[in-house]
# Entry
Amino acid sequence: MSPDIDTADAATETTVAWDRAWGQIPQGRLASAWQGTFTRRRIERIAAIAAAVGCFVLGIQAFFIALGNNAGLRPGWTIPLLTIVFGSLIIMCGACFFRATARVATGAFAVIYIVMLAIWPLATAGSVPTATPEPWPWYLINVATIAAVIAFRFPLQLAWTIATPLIYGFVRIWQGGFEPEFLLAAVFEVPYSLILGGLLMTLVTIFRRMASGVDRERARTVAAYAQAAEAQAAQEERVAVSALMHDSVLAALIAAERADGPRARSLAMSMAREALEGLADTGTPSGGIDPQPTTMKALARGIQASLADLGLRLQVRVEAAEGEPKVPPAVAAAMIRAATQAAANAIQHADGVGLEAIVRRPADPEAESDTDATRVDADQVEGAARSVVESDERLAAVEVVVSDKGPGFDVDAVPDDRLGISASILARIAAIDGEAVIDSGPHGTTVTLRWREVRR
# Structure
C-alpha cells in the first residue's frame, strides 16, 4: 500500500481539550498579580495573626502594670491616655485577623505610641518619678516596633525599630532629670528593646523575602509553561493543517488527474469530499467523530460509514462478546481514520482484492504462555483464569485488522515525505498510546491497529 491518501490530525482529542481548557484560565493583570503573590500573602497573614496574639499578651501585662503604677501620670491624663493607647491596641489586635484592615490598624498604633512618648514629659510634669521598676510604656516598645514591621515598608520599619527605643530612653532620662539612676535604667532598658525589636524585624523580613522568591519562581514557571503550551498548540495546528493539505488534498488532486474511468472518477470525488470534510473537522475536538465512548459494534459502523464516503461498501465484521467495555472517543476516532486510510490504500494500490476488515478484542498477552512453563494444579489454573477474566472485564481493549490479497509492498522503501502510512496510520495510533503493525508481502498486506487501556 502507498501513503497517498488522507492524513492524521496532529493532535488527539485529549490535547485539543487540554489546549481549550488552558485558554479558559484567566490571564489578566489581576489574576497574574494574585498568582505571583500567593506565598507572600500567606506569610503576611501569618505574621499579622502572630503579631496580634503576641501584642495582646504584652498589652494585658502592660495594662495591669499601669493600673498598679501609672508611672507618674497626672490625674487628668491617666484615664484619657490609657484609653487611647490600650483602646488602639485592642483594635489593632482584632484588625490583624482581617487582611484589609491589618496594615491600617498596626500603622495607627505605631504612630499613637510615638505621639504618647512625645507628650509623656507633659503628662508627667510635676510628679516624682522612680527609676525602678520599669514604667508600663516600656512593655509596649516592641509592640510598637512589630506594628511598624507589619504596616510599613522596610525603610520605615528600620527607622521605627531603632527610633522607638531611643525616643523612649531619651524621654525616660528627661523625666528623671538626667539623674544617674535614670541613665543606668535607660542603659539596661533601651538595648534590650533594640535587640528584641531588631530580631523580630529580621525574622519577618527573611520570611517575606523567601516568600517573594517562591512567588517569583512560581510566576516564572507558570509563564514558561504557558509559553511552551502555546508553542506546542501552534506547532500541532501547523502540522495538522500542513499534513492534511499535503496528504489528503494533494492525493485527491492527483487521483482526479489520473482518473481514467467511472470508478476512478468516483473515487477521486470521494477523496475530494473526504479532504474538504477533514479541513472542516480540524477545529473540532474529535474531528467529526461522535465524542462519546463507543462500543465495538458502533466502531465497526463508523468504519463502514467512513469507507462508504470513499464509495466502498464493505461489511466490517465484529468478533467480540456482548458487554465489552466501551472505547474512548479519541481512540475510536483514531481507529476509524487509520482503518479508513488502510482500506483506501488497499483500494488504490491493490484494487481492493480480498479486502476485509475485522473489529475484535485483542488476545491477552498474559494468555500466551510458553509450552514448557511449569505446571500448576487445577485449582491454581482455574483461579488464575478467573483473575484474568475479571481483569479483562474491567479494562477496555480493541483491535482493528484491515487486510487485502494484493501484491504487497516494501514498508521500509516508502519515502519519508509520504504521510499516508507514517502519519495517517502509525503516528495516529501512536498518539493514543496504541500499536500499529503493517505486514506486507506477496501474500498481501495486513494492517493491525491495537489499543489497550492501561490499568491505573
Remarks:
- The mean pLDDT is 78.
- Strands lie at 317-319, 356-360, 397-404, 435-441, 444-452.
